[in-house]
Amino acid sequence: MKKQSTLILLGVVLWITGCATKSNTINRYISKEKNIQFLVDQGRSHWEQRVDGDNARKSRLFLSKANALNPDDQAVAALYARACHFIGYYIEDDPAASDTLFMEGMDTAWEFIISTDAYQEGVALSEGDSTAKMIAGLDNASQDVVPVLYWWVSNYSRYLVTKSVMERLKQRDIIETALHRILALQPDFFYHGANRIFGSIYARLPGVDLNHSVTNFDKSIQGSPNYMGTYVIRAKYLYTKSGNREGFVKDLQQVLNSDPAILPAVSPENLFEQEKARALLKEVSSLFE
Fold first, then answer.
1. How many CB atoms neighbour CB 86 within 10 A?
2. Each residue of 264-285: pLDDT tens digit?
3. Would you state the pLDDT for residue 26?
4. CATH number of residue 103's parent domain
5. Enclosing domain of residue 180
6. How many structural domains does the chain have?
7. Residues 83-113: pLDDT tens digits?
8. Over the stretch 17-29, which tens digit does the pLDDT of each residue have?
């Protein structure tokens, strides 16, 4: 009888212990989920105030922690990569620091892209080398991954801007594949951003007919005429390359005379583009000697 009582008591203890263990596991899961949501909320809150550089940096910090805890959240990965691009392009003055941010944005977006079934399927169907497999994976990217894919190629192309011609030519096929895929799936994404990037790339690559740059800039502006960044980039790369001083001044003056809040979702970007336009206009004499 005593032995039976002991066994019953042991069973109760084990049952209670098991319940406690499950409860602790559930509590830890809930706690982690709440922590991630807090980080995401803080990241988005600071992002909405990104016109202030400190808030932009805080947004990136919170989003980086959220992404580390849950790298499968596509929206967070896209916004984190976008925040890296924003700070590197608009806030950071040191070129080396900007490159580090662009690479951080690239790496974040890339880790998400290569984890998708569509990318893996494209890679599996390719029989080429590693570059061919990479291109096949990008060419098979799905519609829902467009935001991450766009900020990956935005960071990548921005990083390559200051690199040698040989390096830019080496990466051309990869960049073009990503941009063509975006154009096939969602050509108007981020104010016709794929055409804008194509325009800047074709304006800077040697041996490329400048009409390719003209056509892409025109498509981007026709589709999203109120996004100021397209005019600034066209002036900086295409018009300096072609020696079109009149077009250069006209584009930058249009940016300065426009209302940055006409596109509320990107009014911070438009404000910073006005600063870039103002700085470029001061260089007009040296750029068109």
1. 26
2. 999 999 999 999 999 999 999 9
3. 53
4. 1.25.40.920
5. 50-186
6. 1
7. 999 999 999 999 999 999 999 999 999 999 9
8. 555 555 555 556 5
Q: Does residue 191 fall inside a structural domain?
A: no
Query: Residue 289: which pLDDT band, with cuts at 50, 70 and 90?
Result: confident
Q: Which of 257, 249, 175 is nearest to 216 (CA)?
A: 175
Distance CA 231, CA 140 (A): 31
User: Model-level pTM?
Assistant: 0.89
Split at pLDDT 50, 70, 90, the class of 5 is: low
Is 133 within 8 Å of 126 (Cβ atoms)? yes
Structural domain contains residue 245: no
| DSSP code per residue over the chain | -HHHHHHHHHHHHHHHHHHHHHHHHHHHHHHHHHHHHHHHHHHHHHHTTTTSHHHHHHHHHHHHHHHHH-TT-HHHHHHHHHHHHHIIIII---HHHHHHHHHHHHHHHHHHHHTSHHHHHHHHH--S-HHHHHHHHHHT--GGGHHHHHHHHHHHHHHHTTS-HHHHHHTHHHHHHHHHHHHHH-TTHHHHHHHHHHHHHHHHSTT--HHHHHHHHHHHHHH-TT-THHHHHIIIIIIHHHT-HHHHHHHHHHHHTS-GGGSGGGHHHHHHHHHHHHHHHTTHHHHT-
DSSP secondary structure letters along 148-172: HHHHHHHHHHHHHTTS-HHHHHHTH
Q: How far is CA 8 from CA 2, 4, 19, 74, in A?
A: 10, 6, 16, 50
